[in-house]
Design a protein that fits this description.
By secondary structure, the protein is an all-beta fold. Helix content is 0%, strand content 26%. It has no helices and 18 strands. A two-stranded antiparallel ribbon has the order 1-2. A two-stranded antiparallel sheet has the order 3-4. A two-stranded antiparallel ribbon has the order 5-6. The model has no long low-confidence stretch (mean pLDDT 91).
């Protein structure tokens, strides 16, 4: 019998062929390999299973040997067959897995990957969509994160 990841078109043959990239055989004694379903891939010969495309990528055909990255402004979950464009007022997270709201709240700032983060203690941001936090001035403080102002000492 042929091992998983290989096949023989003749039953009980010992002349086995490895499954091509883009296909797999999960059990011993296979007479054919199965093409990877859309949303899955196999990038090597002799695969016993096809893997899901990672979030932020997709495969829209069967027999894929790799997955295609989503275009800018679009997202996908693992195992996707296509990407979805983020709607107005939203943008992809840094891994292109989900769309996030476009505005960061006061007390937050947008980091370099586009995500909103709380301003740490000792800093503040009074407005929406800040790109950085402002340090409290001399004679003022705040002891909590996510603040919109500082208080006098």
């Amino acid at each position: 019998k042929c091992a998983a990841g290989s096949f023989s078109s003749k039953a009980a043959s010992v002349n086995c062929t490895l499954c091509a990239a883009g296909s797999a055989a999960s059990s011993t004694g296979s007479i054919a390999c199965t093409l990877c379903a859309a949303g899955k891939f196999s990038n090597s010969t002799g695969s016993t299973a096809c893997a899901d495309c990672a979030g932020g990528t997709f495969a829209n055909t069967t027999g894929s040997v790799d997955c295609t990255a989503c275009k800018a402004g679009s997202v996908s979950k693992a195992g996707a067959v296509n990407c979805t464009q983020c709607g107005p007022g939203t943008h992809p997270d840094s891994h292109q897995v989900q769309c996030l709201g476009d505005s960061c709240n006061p007390g937050e700032f947008r980091n370099s990957s586009g995500d909103c983060n709380a301003c740490p203690a000792g800093t503040f941001s009074p407005s929406v969509n800040a790109t950085s936090c402002t340090s409290c001035a001399a004679g003022t403080f705040n002891s909590k994160s996510n603040q919109t102002s500082c208080s006098a000492c």
